[in-house]
Amino acid sequence: MSSLTGPRGAAGWATLVLAVIIILLGLPLVYMGAELAFIGGSWYYVLCGLAITIAGILMAMGRVAGAALYLAAYAVTWVWALWEVGFDGWGLLPRVLGPTLIAIAVLASLPTLRRLQERSTFPAGKAA
């Protein structure tokens, strides 16, 4: 979060911590996903890792777009998981449990992200 939109209060800091966690989860997905893709595996992990890393960066900057990007990646994760294993609950569990818990936290961070974004937006016609 920039100095203009720096975290204020517990909710601001919790949102920043969540953003850092998302970044730290996304980076290994990109790296290990690339290794998998280069030996003929799915490109899902690379693309999802890139999406959630960028989402985490945007959230750390106090942008609602970061939450929207994470939730879009989450929706794609469900589509991919259903394509991989169908409606087998035990097959779905390891693919969607973690992303679902993070999605709940991202949804909970939306009010804070909206406040941070509003605080960093200048009204039209006014200089900084």
Reconstruct the topology from this structure.
Layout: H1 9-38, H2 44-60, H3 64-85, H4 89-120
Helix pairs in contact: 1-2, 1-4, 2-3, 3-4
Question: Which key terms come to mind for this protein?
Answer:
128 residues, mainly alpha, 4 helices, 79% helix
Beta-strand portion reads under 5%
Tell me the major beta sheet: none
| Helix and strand composition category | mainly alpha
Question: How many structural domains are formed by the residues?
Answer: 1
The counted number of beta strands is 0
Kindly provide the radius of gyration, computed on alpha-carbon positions and rounded to a whole number of angstroms: 17 Å
Poorly predicted spans:
none
Query: If you average the pLDDT, what whole number results?
Result: 91
What distance separates the N and C termini?
17 Å
Coarse morphology? globular
Helix content: over 70%
**Number of H/I helices:** 4
Can you write the helix and strand succession as a string? HHHH
Transmembrane segments: 12-31, 43-61, 68-86, 92-110
Keywords: Membrane, Transmembrane, Transmembrane helix
Protein name: Glycerol dehydrogenase
